[in-house]
Amino acid sequence: MRKPRRPARTVRQRFTALYGALFLLSAVGLLAVTYLVASGPSSTSRAAPMGEQPYQPSALAAAQEHIARLQAELAQAEAHQSRQLLLGSAVALAVMAVVSIVLGRFVAGRVLRPLRAITATTRRISADNLHERLAVNGPADEVKDLADTIDGLLERLEGSFAAQRRFVADASHELRTPLATMRASLDVAVGKPVPVPEQTVSLAGRLRTELDQVDRLLDGLLVLARAQHGAMVDREAVSLGAAVTAALEARAAGIEAKSLTVRTDLGDVWTRGSHTLLSRMVDNVIDNAVRHNGAGGWIRVAVTAAAGTALLVVETGGDVLDQEQVALLARPFQRLGQDRVHSGDGSGLGLAIVAAVAAAHGGDLDLSARPAGGLRVAVTLPAAGAPE
């Protein structure tokens, strides 16, 4: 049986305990010195006045009795004084214990305040706002060195992310030129007036199919790079219901070819963002549901709004899937095993683009395997009001 994990103590708690212990030890030392000084031995001497006559025996006995009585009273007073001093010391020690904890927590909070500010700012910075910096002001101490080190790391990360996105976009653009050249060469070779061998025509058809696949892949890379970059200047109100309707109408032929049953529940739900990217996101979700579906299957699409969020849910039937593999589908070029029915013409970027577009608009993508079989795709976006 595993032992329950004890909650970890924070740095502020450790500093509070340390400072409180130091303050308390100082108070204990001060009270101890005061008590020792106050309760130290005192000696009194009494000299007989000059010229006095020696006491007679009876007078001497009376004086000794009087001295003994005075000494007893003095001892009783000293004991009472010691008890009062001890009680006062205990009360002062209890008060100092509380004061030490309060002062220790206050001092620890002041010491850790710059670190809390650094932590909060670092948590707020993500891949979409790597341009932000901590910019901690203050003396050149260990805290400022830490903040400057983090700022340098963010600057290097920003440069790396920008270089990666720039490379994907540039490579995709540059590759379109040779693709267009190859497609034109095929059209010229097949379109010659002389009779073209049948094998050449068949080969040209297969090459056109592969070129179309590469073209879709490059287009997907461009959309993915743009979504991950997050630079959207064409923000506008977008109706998710209308986008779903357009996507279903565009794939009516594929739905009819597989005899799929489509059930929809499309509410009047709006979000705000790039119309191009959001339309591509909805197209990919619907396209994924049609492509990875068996003949005679079904698709259920729902668009709802609740608590300031817009929700697009697309469910499909099929075999029971592994949730661990399903969770990886949002990564580029990830597919399920061979048991899942698919046409094989996908680029492997469909759901990755969906996740990137949703994240760029402040939402997220949730993929889950249905217990009865099939896949559930849920996209959450911030809701917006309908345009006037």
UniProtKB/TrEMBL annotation:
Mention any one GO cellular component term assigned to this protein in its UniProt record: plasma membrane
Which chemical reaction does it catalyze? ATP + protein L-histidine = ADP + protein N-phospho-L-histidine
Q: Which UniProt keywords apply?
A: Kinase, Membrane, Phosphoprotein, Transferase, Transmembrane, Transmembrane helix, Two-component regulatory system
A Gene Ontology molecular function term for this protein is:
phosphorelay sensor kinase activity
Where is this protein localized, as stated in its record?
Answer: Cell membrane
Q: What class of enzyme is it?
A: transferase
Chain ranges of the HAMP domain: 109-162
The record lists the membrane-crossing segments as 16-38, 85-108
Q: What is this protein called?
A: histidine kinase
Question: SUPFAM superfamilies this protein is in?
Answer: ATPase domain of HSP90 chaperone/DNA topoisomerase II/histidine kinase (SSF55874), HAMP domain-like (SSF158472), Homodimeric domain of signal transducing histidine kinase (SSF47384)
User: Residue ranges of the Histidine kinase domain?
Assistant: 170-385
Q: Is the keyword Protein transport in the record?
A: no
Q: What is its EC number?
A: 2.7.13.3
Superkingdom of the source species: Bacteria
The principal localisation class reads: membrane
Q: Which InterPro entries match?
A: HAMP_dom, HATPase_C_sf, HATPase_dom, His_kinase_dom, HisK_dim/P_dom, HisK_dim/P_sf, Sig_transdc_His_kin-like_C, TCS_sensor_his_kinase
What Pfam families is this protein classified in?
HAMP, HATPase_c, HisKA
CDD domains per the UniProt record, alphabetical: HAMP, HATPase, HisKA
Keyword Aminoacyl-tRNA synthetase on entry: no
Q: Which organism is it from?
A: Nonomuraea jiangxiensis
